[in-house]
């Protein structure tokens, strides 16, 4: 369980998250939504330890985040940023990077690491592309390779910033189904989402952020029937057979 207790964080002297409190459970897909600049990406970076929180407390399964070193944090939480480069390496080499936090001296990948990477690639359906250069892949397939890297890290919590960005519709749906499956297997998946109907159709819980704090937290059904979306985004959603659509 990730417990966020009244945290404050930001960049240099600029406060972005201000007094945010929240509990995020394993075995759930939680989508984080909100207007641009409300602190969604900052929240993920703070939870992953990339940005320190200046007030409050973050507990990972009861252990304060600020008592863990980078390697210890990386064995508990994997983080996938929205903006990613295309390094000159193969799919397998990229996915193996997810095992780096678990390497011991002499920092060489073991058979266990290679099996974990192979399983992650197989789970994403990209194992036949293991030796393919990343530069040769489509944007959607390259995104799968990055998700496989996060999966190979073998953490209880996976944080993803706009994982469906730049993907075509079929690839978006495929990715969200996978994230749902990972959550059902016990992983805590936290994804910043821009597409509201997509987030509502697949998530177990939704965190709505506004001005660096939690405006609302609840199930898709609860938030769809409330006035939260209208207040924050000026839009509403309707649900038909667990598929959410904008109300026009």
Query: Main β-sheet, in a few words?
Result: 6 strands, mixed
Structure classification: alpha/beta
Number of helices: 9
Strand content: 25-35%
Q: What is the helix content? A: 25-40%
Strand order, biggest sheet?
6-7-8-3-9-10
Low-confidence segments, given as residue ranges, are: none
> Mean of the pLDDT scores?
91
Order of helices and strands: EEEHEEHEHHHEHEHEEHHEE
In total, the number of strands is 12
Distance linking N and C termini: 38 Å
Per the principal axes of the C-alpha atoms, what is the gross shape? Answer: globular
Using only C-alpha atoms, the radius of gyration works out to: 18 Å
Key terms for this structure?
32% helix, 4-stranded antiparallel β-sheet, single chain, 248 residues, alpha/beta, 6-stranded mixed β-sheet, 28% strand
Structure commentary:
This protein is of the alpha/beta class. It is built from 9 helices and 12 strands. The chain has helices spanning about 40-45, 70-75, 90-95, 110-125, 140-150, 170-185, 195-200, 220-225, 230-235, and strands at about 1-10, 15-25, 30-35, 55-60, 65, 75-80, 155-160, 190, 205-210, 215-220, 235-240, 245. The strands form 3 sheets. Strands 6-7-8-3-9-10 form a 6-stranded mixed sheet, sandwiched between helices. Strands 2-1-4-5 form a 4-stranded antiparallel sheet, covered by helices on one side. It has a two-stranded antiparallel sheet with strand order 11-12. Strand 7 (about 155-160), helix 6 (about 170-185) and strand 8 form a beta-alpha-beta unit. The longest helix has 16 residues, at about 170-185. The chain is globular. The model has no long low-confidence stretch (mean pLDDT about 90).
């Amino acid at each position: 369980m990730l417990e966020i207790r009244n945290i404050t964080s930001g960049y240099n002297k600029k406060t972005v998250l201000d007094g945010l409190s929240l509990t995020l459970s394993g075995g759930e897909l939680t989508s984080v939504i909100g207007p641009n600049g409300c602190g969604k990406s900052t929240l993920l970076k703070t939870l992953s330890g990339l940005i320190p929180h200046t007030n409050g407390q973050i507990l990972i399964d009861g252990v304060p985040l600020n008592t863990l070193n980078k390697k210890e944090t990386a064995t508990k939480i994997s983080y996938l940023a929205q903006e990613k480069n295309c390094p000159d390496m193969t799919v397998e080499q990229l996915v193996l990077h997810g095992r780096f936090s678990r390497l011991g001296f002499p920092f060489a990948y073991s058979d266990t690491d290679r099996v974990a990477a192979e399983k992650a690639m197989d789970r994403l359906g990209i194992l036949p592309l293991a030796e393919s250069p990343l530069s040769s892949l489509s944007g959607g397939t390259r995104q799968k390779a990055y998700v496989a890297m996060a999966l190979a890290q073998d953490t209880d919590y996976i944080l993803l910033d706009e994982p469906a960005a730049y993907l075509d519709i079929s690839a978006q749906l495929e990715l969200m189904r996978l994230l749902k499956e990972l959550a059902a297997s016990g992983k805590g998946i936290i994804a910043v989402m821009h597409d509201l109907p997509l987030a509502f159709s697949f998530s177990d819980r939704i965190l709505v952020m506004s001005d660096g704090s939690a405006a609302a937290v609840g199930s898709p059904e609860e938030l769809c029937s409330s006035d939260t979306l209208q207040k924050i985004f000026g839009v509403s959603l309707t649900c038909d057979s667990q598929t959410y659509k904008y109300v026009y």
